[in-house]
Amino acid sequence: MRGSVTSASYLLLLVLHHSFYVIKTIFGPIIYPFGASSNHRIRTRTFVPEHRGRTAALLLIFALVTFLIILSSNNNEEPFNYKDLKIKHQNPPNIRKWGLQDGYIGVTGNKTLHNKCNSCVLVTSSSHLLHTGLGHTIDQSECVIRMNDAPITSYEKDVGNKTTFRVVAHSSVYRVLRRPQEFLSRAPGQTLIFWGPAIKMQQNSKTNLYHIIQRASSAFPSVSAFVLSPRNMARFDDLFRTETGRDRQKSHSWLSTGWFTMVIAVELCNKVHVYGMVPPDYCSNRQHKMPYHYYEPRGPDECTTYIQNERGRRGNHHRFITEKLVFARWASVYNISFSHPEWFQEPDN
């Protein structure tokens, strides 16, 4: 920690030095109007123009903000000890007994989600999938599950072409629907499952999100669309509390799309293989930085994202590492396996 603060402080000094240099450049001719003259006997009183004062203030604010960003970045570079996370040890509930009929609401018609697969692969959005050449293997699977707006085009060699289910968060609805060629017409016969708070996702909600999904579903009748029922959303919250001992709302936690997708996969599939999800202890000993998404090579670093969310206490945050600890416990119960990277054993906690 001390080394991180020291390096951050050093960088702050550099920023301040350059800021004061700019300030001096701005004010020098006014504060010292005779600085270049040999006659120093006569001096006049001068005033700093208002706009230059604002410039100086903004430069100082910029320096301080830069320092805070650097300090935060350095703190998140520290190894993360996942064993510090305390979650409950117990036998997981039988998610497969939840039932599909009352958990998913058909957006058009009276459709019922009754698709069941013996074997599924869950293709994450992780950059660990790049250069794996897994596309053919994924396409040979009985059912393929994808998440949010993770694209296929240009990544077929590594992530495949086939899509059976796509689980979409309310925050990703627009990103999915504004690219129908990629996410709707490309995989006829697929099922889209949307999740989100009732205020946004139900037919009588004040927002038009549900109706937008409904119109898109009508325009692409070969695609089935469902939203999670309020009862099912409550189940996901209860499951998080049961498995972690934390109340989602009181702990300021947002459940991730990965959490919803894993539970849905267990409901729909007798066996699940997950590609690209890192184990819970990964960020304690990672070798190098990796982008968070395979389709955003210049996006945020995955471990920085995980650790910032796990440590966050103000505002709402995903608890990615806590969720992965739960998934590790579920592996033997629900016949879940992981690769790229492989999970060798359930971490001790």
Record field, number of beta strands: 10
Number of helices: 12
**How large is the share of residues in beta strands?**
5-15%
Q: Sheet with the most strands?
A: 8 strands, mixed
What does this structure look like?
The chain has 349 residues and is an alpha/beta fold. It has two domains: 2-33 and 48-78; 92-339, Alpha-Beta Complex (sialyltransferase cstii, chain A), CATH 3.90.1480.20. Helices cover 41% and strands 13% of the residues. The protein has helices at residues 2-31, 50-76, 135-139, 156-159, 173-177, 180-183, 198-201, 209-219, 230-244, 257-268, 302-311, 320-334, and strands at 104-106, 117-123, 143-147, 165-169, 191-195, 224-228, 253-254, 269-275, 317-318, 336-339. The strands form two sheets. An eight-stranded mixed beta sheet has the order 1-6-5-4-3-2-8-10, sandwiched between helices. It is a single-pass type II membrane protein.
